[in-house]
Specification:
- By secondary structure, the protein is an alpha/beta fold.
- The protein folds into two domains: 170 residues, Quinone Oxidoreductase, Chain A, domain 1, CATH 3.90.180; 139 residues, Rossmann fold.
- The chain is built from nine helices and 16 strands.
- Strands 3, 5, 6, 7, 8, 15 and 16 form a seven-stranded mixed beta sheet that branches.
- α3 packs across α4, α3 crosses α8 and α4 runs parallel beside α5.
Length: 354
């Protein structure tokens, strides 16, 4: 079959590779019908992310048609089009009983598709446990909406959930790319009264306001922390969700979040190695009462089906995140190139396979 593989740092290449083998008794073989390129794919190939083995198949955001199923699969049928969660925990691992499903058995075990397992940039791919790793798509949920639910929507909502938002809170969302936009939507859904979004691209600013942002802060207008502290009478936001930015974003979040009851929720990816700076003074020299969460997105079947329930009943519409569409697997390289270039009008891509 044809697959787009990581050949070397800075280089993706189409290659003919063996088709995946069905993993009995619970597995599935799937054919992608819609794919989106994640910014983490770009980091991995072009930006010094965690190195992959050569000829590794990339990709983890897709909808797919079921081609084959193991004999013990109960809840899905061959021919059904399903959403494929980007995060696929091993729900049979013992650590799941400790509510540690995203790191059950080993670090980042929930994030395997396209990372340690062959990904979705191919004619076919396999998953070992269809009943826990695939999600039914409701009839009135569009392909664009379903595709955005499998990664960016659940990631943004994870950020909002770990921000411990209470009704009436003031929340700051740092970075309003696709994940940040969904964090804005998540914060609004959870009852935030005032949402301050940090970002500059006009296409994202417009959507941030649609999703519930009351105020927009741009670094071009001065120090981000000082702007937000002035807007909150020196108190700072009750919660800060970090959904974008460089290493400095982590420090800025701790700087600005409220003393005593403030929560920083990070779902941002920081490339490379080294350290993230925890500010000693605004951290109260270790006694500021500020809570920090660093979280991988929630995933699995039930999580993504619940995301699509929010879509189905009109609570959230992630469909507008798709700004650029392509047709045919061959056009996947065009989508990758576009994500790498990141033009100002881009948020997310969608490649329709059939």
């Amino acid at each position: 079959m044809k697959a787009l593989v990581f050949e070397a740092p800075g280089r993706l290449k189409w290659k003919n590779v063996p088709e995946p083998v069905l993993q009995e008794p619970y597995g599935a073989i799937l054919h992608p019908v819609a794919i989106s390129v994640c910014s983490s794919d770009i980091h991995t190939v072009y930006g010094g992310g965690v190195p992959k083995q050569t000829n590794h198949i990339m990709g983890h955001e897709c909808l797919a048609r079921i081609v084959r199923l193991g004999q013990q699969v109960r809840d899905f049928q061959v021919g059904e089009v399903v959403a494929v969660p980007a995060i696929t925990p091993d729900w049979r691992a013992a650590d799941v009983q400790l509510l540690n499903e995203r790191h059950a058995g080993e670090h980042f075990s929930g994030h395997r598709l396209g990372r340690t397992w062959p990904g979705v940039f191919a004619d076919y791919f396999a998953l070992p446990d269809a009943d826990t790793m695939l999600a039914h798509i409701p009839e009135n949920v569009t392909m664009e909406q379903a595709l955005m639910s499998v990664d960016v929507m659940t990631t943004g909502f994870t950020g909002a959930e770990y921000a411990q938002i209470k009704s009436g809170d003031t929340v700051c969302v740092m970075g309003i790319g696709p994940v940040g936009l969904m964090a804005v939507a998540g914060a609004a859904h959870m009852g935030a009264a005032r949402i301050i979004a940090v970002g500059t691209r006009p296409v994202c600013v417009k959507l941030a306001k649609q999703y519930g942002a009351n105020d927009i802060v741009s670094y071009k207008n001065g120090d981000t922390v000082q702007q937000i502290l002035r807007m909150t009478d020196g108190v700072g936001p009750d919660s800060v969700i970090i959904a974008g930015g460089g290493d400095e974003a982590f420090t800025q979040a701790v700087d600005m979040v409220r003393y005593g009851i403030g929560t920083v929720s990070n779902v941002n990816y920081y490339g490379g190695t080294g350290f993230l700076a925890f500010p000693k003074f605004s951290g109260g020299r270790g006694m500021a009462g500020k809570t920090v969460h660093t979280e991988l997105a929630k995933g699995g079947r039930v999580r993504i089906e619940r995301m699509m329930s929010l879509i189905r009943y009109g609570r959230v519409d992630p469909g507008p995140l798709v700004t650029h569409q392509f047709n045919g697997l061959d056009e996947l390289t065009s989508a990758v190139d576009l994500m790498r270039q990141k033009p100002p009008e881009l948020i997310k891509t969608m490649v329709r396979i059939d």
